[in-house]
Design a protein that fits this description.
mainly alpha, Complex 1 LYR protein domain-containing protein, ISC_assembly_LYR
Length: about 90
C-alpha cells in the first residue's frame, strides 16, 4: 500500500474511532486534534519522518480504541448539547 493511501486510511480510522468516544468533550477534542495533526504533517517529505508519524498514528488508533471501550464501561449522563429534541418537547 502506498504511503499516501496508508495515511488516508489511518486518518479515516482515527476519525471513526474518535466518534465512538462516549464523552462529547473528548470526542470533539480527538477529532480536532486528529485533523490538526494530519494538516501539520501534510508537507513532510522525508520518508523516515513519514514512517515515524504513521507509527504514532497507529499507536494513537490503538489508544483511542481502548479509551472508547473504557469510556463505555463508565458512561455518564449525556450533556445538554448531545440530547436530541423530541417533537413533544418542542410543542410545549
Amino acid at each position: 500500500m502506498s504511503t499516501r493511501r496508508l495515511a488516508k486510511t489511518l486518518y479515516r480510522k482515527l476519525l471513526r474511532e474518535a466518534e465512538k468516544l462516549p464523552s462529547y468533550n473528548f470526542r470533539m477534542y480527538a477529532g480536532r486534534k486528529i485533523r490538526e495533526t494530519f494538516r501539520e504533517n501534510k508537507t513532510i517529505n522525508d520518508f523516515d519522518k513519514i514512517d515515524a508519524q504513521i507509527e504514532v498514528a497507529r499507536q494513537s488508533l490503538e489508544m483511542l480504541r481502548r479509551q472508547a471501550i473504557i469510556g463505555h464501561l463508565y458512561s455518564a449522563e449525556k450533556l445538554v448539547i448531545e440530547r436530541k429534541k423530541t417533537l413533544s418537547h418542542a410543542e410545549d
